[in-house]
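Reading a protein record of the kind used here takes only a little practice. The record below shows the convention in full.

——
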Amino acid sequence: MLAAPSPSPGPGQGPDTQGLANWLRDIFGPLFLVVVSLVALFFLFTREITRFVQFIVLVVAIAVIFYYPGIIETVATGAAKALGVKGG
């Protein structure tokens, strides 16, 4: 039996991308953690502590953006308020 096609969104509605974002997080999240773990172990075993610390800082920044994408807007708004920029 064939599945019925889903109706296309109306003129004022865009596609629902929240499901796609969650699916991508579910797929790439564990892969991201495995790659980060392997690279971190490499830096520790080769005793490159400076590169290890730089890598961890970069990974934390990427993970925050990946898992909490709304935080960029929050930080930008807070920085603008701290600098005295008035929003419109």
Observations:
- The radius of gyration is 20 Å.
- The chain has a mean pLDDT of 80.
- The chain has three helices and no strands.
- Residues 18 and 37 are 28 Å apart (CA to CA).
